[in-house]
Amino acid sequence: MKGIWTKISVFVLMICTLLPQAVMAAGEKADLVVIVADTRGLTGILHAWGTLYNESHLYFSLLTIVLIPVIGLLFGTIADIVMKTIGIDLEHRELSEH
Amino acid sequence: MDWLYVLMPISGVTIFWPGLIILGVGVGIIGGFFGMGGAWMVTPGLNILGFPMAFAIGTDIAHMAGKSLISTMRHGKFGNVDYKLGFIMLVGTVVGFEVGAQMIMWLERLGNVEIIVRLLYLVLLGLIAWMVFSDVSKKRKKDREARAKGHEVDALSTGIEWHKTLHKIKLAPMIHFKAAGITCTAWLPIAISFFTGWLAGILGIGGGLIRMPALLYLLGCPTHVAVGTDLFEVMISGLYGAFTYTMKGRTELVAAIIMLVGAAIGAQIGTVATKYIKGYGIRIAFGLAVVGCALSIILKLLAKELPAYATLLNNSSTTLVLGLVFCMSLYITVKMVQGARAEIAAAKNK
To answer: Are A34 and B249 inside 8 Å of each other by CB?
Structure first.
């Protein structure tokens, strides 16, 4: 049993180590067709965002998929507070029909 | 009026940001109410606002993931999300989607399949619309017959009951889905999700439009649970789609965030409206949305066949889709406000 777990752990570690390399390799080949952000007209956070995109697609993508749920959660919670303030019951719903 | 426009850092286009918020509100309402991502509504809207098509699709998927998360949170609190069912279906959806996507790439190497795909999509939409309206008609007939016999109308009765036949398959392991209130073989949701995922992969769509009726008619989920569980799936597939599109440099997160401001409000309105509109009301509205989607595709197909009228037909298609979004959003909002008013008044009287 211990042997199986060791093999699985080694396999997972190998995937984690090799996969980003594979992704990077694919990224380099695709560089020819990928659009480069023109950051000259940008300032502040938009400039930083454009620069991050130009520097690393992988980190840019990872940050994007982390930011989307976080922002969704934040806006959802704010909207929740507003709805509750209005007086709408957000916890219960009669499930009486199909 | 320069402050009304924002320069998008990746695509380099300048966009009218209040337009993004309005679009976000509209699709948020419809998505939260029907349980779908609504790419067929958002993409033409973003295109009109000035996004190149490739960016429109990627940005739509990114905003869809966030919007579905907001709606899933709300539906989850109402008890409308069957997480066990969602996770099981996710397996079939992912595998089916990949098989479908690979199959379409193989077909593309053989020749141009775009017209066939669009026609298949149309047939499918026609079938879904027929299922929905036939279901509504059968349900009404049952209710009429019950009233004629002097019986009480069964609120839980449904028109089409294919799921009852499918539930007779007793293949181990049998699973009970608490929120959906159904017990069936685990292979049934896996097979259904594989099939819907495969279709979505072939058609190049998110799949909410197909999964929602499949959950209703093949699995037998109550309407509200079908909506909530479908949104849960859209959320996860949306995140995966956002990652792949961003890796290709086709996502404009700034636009997605602006849209999310509107979608956060819209998704709440759409989701809360499901409290006040009965299951069959949702099904009828869903059927109308499917018809609208089918008509827009017919117009786009005609535009390709009749190049002389291409501009007119393409514009008509976009107007139809955005008009549909506006009308449905208005209807859902009015129903939600009416319901909320009645609820608040009732709470005050207690």
So the answer is: yes
Residue whose tokens read 């990652």: B243
Range of the domain at B299: 2-148+156-349
Quick check: A88 and B344 CB within 8 A? yes
Residues of B in contact with A37 (CB under 8 A): 9-10, 12
Cis-peptide into B173, omega within 30 deg? yes
A98–B279 CB contact, under 8 Å: yes
- Quick one: closest CA in B to A85, which residue? B344
Question: The whole model's pTM is what?
Answer: 0.79
pLDDT in tens, chain A (98 residues): 566 666 666 665 665 555 444 444 444 444 445 567 788 878 888 888 888 888 888 888 888 889 988 988 888 888 888 888 887 777 766 655 55
**Domain of A19, in residue numbers:** 1-34
Rounded to the nearest angstrom, the gap between the alpha carbon of residue B315 and the centroid of all alpha carbons in its chain is 23
Domain count, chain B: 1
CA dist B257 and B242 (Å) reads: 13
